[in-house]
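Deliverable D5.2: sample structural annotation.
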Amino acid sequence: MAEGWDEDALRAVRGALHAQDGAALLAALRRGPVREVLQLAGDGVAGAAALGLPGAAEMAASFLGALQERGFRGDEELADRLRAATGDAATPLLRPIPVDMEMLAMLLEGDPAESGGRLDLSTGECLPAFTEELEPGPPAEEADDPERWLFVPALGSRAGYRDMELFIEGLGDAALADRLRGAIGGRGAFRRFKDVLGRDERSWRRYNRFCDERQRGRARAWLAEEGYRPSYSVLRRTVRS
């Protein structure tokens, strides 16, 4: 297995998820370390395991081991789903929603003064609050329907700041870590951090994957607290030789 994900390999994973092609997903996941794409691909692996695709049970076991070792927020909820998909546990009592987890994470981690929004429980669509100023919203009698809408609060940047701290702690490059620690003190920490890290393309890509995993996990945990879980269409039974 490769030491890290290059852009082509990561596109293959995303492409297989978008196409809901279980066999292609399992093949793509062999091109990089699963620990870096657990939240991104975990639901797809669960779907492949539920279908009994060749190699899916082994991939699910690999994901479970990595999730238990890592322990980010949201990892236990994903582990529960994988256990259920492989028949090792009951299905979590959470209502499935076909939500875009990346978009949900963006709403949750926006500026409390400007962001937030709501989640359409019937379609999974995430609607930022500012779009309601640009486009006509639902009729008044529907806008407050708790069976249709779930309010999504904007929780601010504290979790994102912690992501930077944890990323720095995990860096093997002591000199770069020292520069980044100096960058995140005081106002403008995020901009300075990105300015410093952007000079190292490999570390910059790794940071983006790290943040994506952390953000998706927090969104999954928030959904579970509200009684929901992300769902996706059943993967196709495509099998390639």
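Annotation notes: Residues 7-96 form one domain. The beta strands are 95-97, 117-120, 126-128, 149-152, 228-230.
The annotation will be released with the project's public dataset once the embargo ends.
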